[in-house]
Amino acid sequence: MGRSSDLMSQTFTATGGARVGWTNASWPLAQLSSSQEQLILNIRLLGTYAFVPEQVSEIEKFVWLPVIAQGIKIHHCNPDCPEKIIFWSLGNPKTVLQGIKDSGFLPTALPSAIVKRRGIAIRWSVIIGAFALWNGPFFLAFFLFAKLPENAAPVALLFLLPLAMAFAFCLGTLKSPSFRRIVLKPGRSVGEIRPILRLIGFITGIMLLVFSIAMALGGFTLTNQRPSHSADLLTIPSAEGR
Question: For residues 152 and 223, is the Cβ–Cβ distance under 8 A?
Answer without folding.
Answer: yes
